[in-house]
Structure formats: C-alpha cells, structure tokens
Write a structure and sequence with these properties.
alpha/beta, Rossmann fold, 2 domains, 14 helices
Length: 348
C-alpha cells in the first residue's frame, strides 16, 4: 500500500472512535512522522486526542501526565520515557513509531496483556538503501577519495584501485525484513547472495533466490561483501570477533547497519588499521562515536552516524503504518508488528 493509499483508506476505515489517545512526541517527531494530512488523520481517531511535548521530558513528569490523562492508547517515539511498572487502568495499546520498544515497555508489560506495536517493515527498504550506500562507497573507495580530493587536491593516478558490485558474492548475516529488501536492491547487480540465519528454510532459499550457508565462518570466508543484519541479543553480542574478521578476503567489504554490539569493535579497529578490508559502519558499540575514536580518519572506513534508518522524508511511511494499526485497533482488527514476549526477546 502506498502513502496515498494509506491516507485514502483511513478516511473511511475507522468505525469506532478510540476513547482517549495520548501522543508523547517531540515537535520534530510530529513533523517527520505525521506530515501534511497524517496529523489531521491521527487526531480524528479519537474524540479525546492530546499531544504532550516529550522534548527533555523526565520520566517522573511523563508518569504524572500519563496518570492524569489515563489514555486508552499511547503513541510513543524515540524521546518517550519508559512506562511505569504499574500502568494506568485504561491503557490498552502502545503504538510505538520506531523500532526497538525496550526503552519504552518492559517484557512484563507485554506479559500482562499490553498491546505494543512498532514500525514493522515500513522502513526496511530505507535501511537496505543505507546498506547499499555503504557497499558502493567501500567498493569505490569513496572515503579515501573524498577526503583526499577535498583536503589534498588529489586526483587519480596509476595506483588507483576501485571495484564494482556487479557479479560479486554477497553474504548476509541475518535474513529479516531489511535483508529481504536488500536482496531486491542488489539483485540487478547479478550478485550471488548467500545467507547465514537460523530461520532460513529451503522454501525461503527457493522463494528469495538465496543460498543458506552452513556456518558463520563460511559466510565470512567465502564472500566478497558481508552485510551485518543480525539482531543485537545476548546470543549475538560480539559474535563478529577478530578471528571472523580475519576470515574476510583482502579487498572485501564488511558493512554493519544492524547494531554495534554485534561486533567486537576493538578487534574491528585492529583489523581496519591494516587496510586490507573496506568497512562501512553506521552503528557502534557506544553512540555517539567519540570524537577521538580510532575509527575516525581511517581511509578504508566509511562512517555514518546511525543514519541508515528512515531518512527524514521517509519517516512518514512509519507514521502511515502507525495510522493503519490505530485504525485496525479501533475496529477490533489484528495489529501488524505486534510484540509478544518471544519476539520481544529476539528484538534488538
């Protein structure tokens, strides 16, 4: 469904007004997630709709507002503080506009029956686009040339080395929604796509045209490009260690748009300093990245400050997704991207 389709569908979709809706969002979040008609559509879902500015809001102040308003539905985003352990009696549903819900709700809240959704697959294609950006920047050596041309007046010479994505072998660690969108983006390059993920079945291999690799070591050793897409959970913490990084072929590319904690960053720095592998990094163990971090200034490292998520202009896709869920809730229909205790544990 397109953005316009979402707007048109919502005009007649909601048969019941939600009793009370509280949106705890910053002005910037309102602007980006609910531009144009989306904000008006949101307000029409309830006869009692209230917006509270969460910019610099303390947890204590949030809990006071929540208890005072006692909404049926809470709309949350990046700056919304953690819910209290004991919820207001009327609160039934938290519609979270972004990805990880763990800074908003606890597992106990979900076990007690609180319905919680996130942005699901609404922004997966944009994250995949960010991964493709880093792949191409690394292959074409953009970080080195960008700095050299800006600061040193450099130009190509006889030693210039660049590479193409066409006909490469690409390995994906993880095969969730972002990985599947990335497959769509890179398939025109004629790449061979290999995957290491616990939930890839023969049917998925056939439907997506990928090959499941038996081991993570094999994935790293046998591909020209590796894209890290695994969730950050206890089982994956620093799973990409120095030994695995050294399995990467000379001239190969490692891109991480998942979470920094999946990689042993100290080991990554050691390998990156040797210059034999190109790295594209959007996420880091500690964010923001320290101004004196040793990754800064390495010419074989493409850096972005956790920007692979939805660009400002595409956050409206997550807003439209939230509106569809809110309309479904009002009509007693199933919710998309609904959290359960199990998938809460499996999410970053």
């Amino acid at each position: 469904m397109t953005f316009s389709d979402s707007i048109n569908a919502l005009d007649s979709a909601c048969a019941r007004k939600i009793e009370s809706v509280l949106a705890v969002l910053t002005p910037g979040e309102v602007r980006d997630f609910f531009p144009d008609l989306l904000w008006e559509q949101l307000k029409q879902l309830s006869g009692d709709f209230r917006w509270v500015n969460s910019q610099d809001m303390s947890e204590e102040a949030f809990h006071r507002e929540l208890a005072l308003i006692n909404p049926e539905v809470l709309i949350a985003c990046w700056k919304t503080p953690l819910l209290p352990a004991v919820l207001p009696k009327r609160l039934r549903y938290v519609c979270h506009l972004t990805g990880s819900v763990k800074h908003i709700v606890s597992r106990h809240h979900i076990e007690q029956g609180l319905r919680v959704t996130n942005w699901g697959g609404s922004i997966s294609r944009v994250v995949a686009e960010g991964a493709l950006l880093h792949i191409l920047c690394c292959l074409r050596r953009v970080p080195a040339w960008c700095l050299a041309m800006h600061k040193e007046g450099a130009w190509k010479n006889g030693d210039t080395e660049t590479a193409s994505l066409f006909d490469r072998k690409v390995g994906l660690h993880g095969f969730g929604l972002v990985a599947r969108e990335l497959v769509k983006l890179i398939r025109p390059f004629g790449v061979e796509i290999n995957v290491f993920a616990p939930d890839v079945t023969p049917a998925i291999e056939r439907d997506w045209g990928v090959r499941n690799t038996a081991t993570l070591d094999g994935l790293f050793a046998e591909n020209d490009v590796i894209v890290e897409l695994a969730p950050f959970i206890p089982e994956t913490t620093r799973i990409i260690d120095e030994r695995r990084l050294r399995l990467l072929r000379p001239g190969s590319v490692f891109v991480n748009v998942a979470r920094g904690g999946v990689v042993d960053e100290t080991a990554l720095v050691r390998v990156a300093r040797e210059g034999r592998v190109q790295f594209g990094l959007d996420v880091f163990e500690v964010e923001p990245l320290a101004s004196d971090h040793p990754l800064r200034g390495l010419l074989n490292v493409s850096l972005t400050p956790h920007l692979a998520g939805p660009t400002n202009d595409r956050r409206r896709d997550a807003g439209a997704w939230a509106l569809r869920n809110l309309s479904a809730y009002a009509n007693g229909q199933p919710l998309s991207a609904l959290m359960t205790p199990h998938n809460y544990d499996q999410k970053t």
